[in-house]
Amino acid sequence: MRRAAVAIAAGAMAVSLAACGSAKESGDNADSSGSGSAKKGDDIKVGLLLPENATARYEKFDRVLIEKKVKELTGNKGEVVYANANQDAAKQNQQVDTMVSNKVDVLIVDAVDSKAIAGSVKKAKDANIPVVAYDRLAEGPIDAYTSFDNVTVGKTQGEALLKALGGKAKDGQIVMMNGSSTDPNAAMFKKGAHSVLDGKVKVGREYDTKEWKPENANANMEGAISALGKDKIVGVYSANDGMAGGIITALKAAGIADVPVTGQDAELAGVQRIVTGEQYMSVYKPYPQEADVAAEMAVALAQGKSLDSIAKDKVDSPTTKAVPSVLVPVVSLTKDNIKDTVIKDGIYTVSEICTGKYKAACDKIGLE
Questions:
Q1: 8: CB partners within 8 A, 6+ apart
Q2: What is the pLDDT of residues 10-39, one digit of tens each?
Q3: Of 62, 290, 298, 321, which residue is most buried, by most CB within 10 angstroms?
Q4: 124-165, pLDDT tens digit by residue?
């Protein structure tokens, strides 16, 4: 597992090097996306729109990291104007419209609904405001995109679940708890997971979980247990940690134990469940790298500079071809590599993870 963390670190270094040509070093070329944004100095206004705050990462990591990087890139002259949509696509569209009216210089948008945001992205484009799609590939004329390799995320989850199941993969059925159907990432996670799981384990029930909400995952899991029988379920594919929490609550209530459950996002509660063995794994996504790239893209676009030194890849959305992109690598997080990932990268400290009721479990796995 340590080797896996090192491999990811090497991949992350490559991404970092790809992004190391900061906005200040990108040159004075016209924006390669063709946004036509007028050249500006460091006194810029960046609109940041995040989708919700039920998932811990958005307020704890993404917002804080992007604000910090924008300040760093602009000598503390750049301003980040922030809005959170609370999982409401209509509200997010209104937030974009407000930022367009207030003439921000660039937008970073993590879409609640990738299709529903397209009209607002077009409004921004018409107002000569470039848009960076962050974490989710928004539709409409976006200028840049950064996220993780989301099909690989699903493959990583599926491979971990098969490893945890071992010989039990043929003995029963699994439940698949996918993310929201409005999130294009969820479809890619699902695709990656199915590419690994299909033919190797029987999927007894599968759900697209409305709004990614843990309570909806909990209700779906209760339905799956009722339909399949508690003795027939050998594992659960959960697309993220929040839903894993709701799933595990349902499993406990039904008296089901020792069933591996996957996750994603390396939320603190998820990491703690991994320590105790209630959750088998999560996908650790290095948010600092993703946030830094988004900030670099946004500042460069606002200043009318090229993305050539930042974005080495191209990604097609359903509406826009060859979007300049950076995809950040991920790693499977289990109890074996907590030290080499979230602790090493400063996401959490041992004391944050190993609070009172988790202390004994932490000691058992050498996390002290």
A1: 286, 329, 330, 331
A2: 344 344 333 344 444 443 334 444 444 456
A3: 298
A4: 999 999 999 999 999 999 999 999 999 999 999 999 999 999
Q: Of the ranges 49-58, 159-168, 351-360, which one carries the lowest mean pLDDT score?
A: 49-58
Cβ atoms < 10 Å from Cβ of 102: 10
Q: Tens of pLDDT along 243-266?
A: 999 999 999 999 999 999 999 999
Distance CA 289, CA 311 (A): 13
Q: Got the DSSP string for 9-42?
A: HHHHHHHHHHH-S-GGGS-SPPPTT---PPP--S
Query: H or E stretch including 71?
Result: helix 63-73
Mean pLDDT of 293-322: 96
- What residues are paired with 49 via a beta bridge? 83, 109
Phi, psi of 178 (to 5 degrees): -80, 170
Q: Alpha carbon of 222 to those of 216, 227, 235, 254: distances in Å? A: 10, 9, 14, 8
Q: Are 172 and 233 in contact (CB under 8 A)?
A: yes
Write 344-349 long-range contacts (CB < 8 A, 24+). 344/5, 345/286, 345/288, 347/61, 347/266, 347/287, 348/268, 348/271
Gap between the Cα atoms of 77 and 89, Å rounded? 31
pTM assigned to the model: 0.78
How, if at all, do strands 313-315 and 323-328 pair? antiparallel
Backbone angles phi, psi at 343, to 5 degrees: -80, -45
**What DSSP assignment string belongs to 177-241?**
EE--TT-HHHHHHHHHHHHHHTTTSEEEEEEEPGGG-HHHHHHHHHHHHHHH-TTTEEEEEESSH
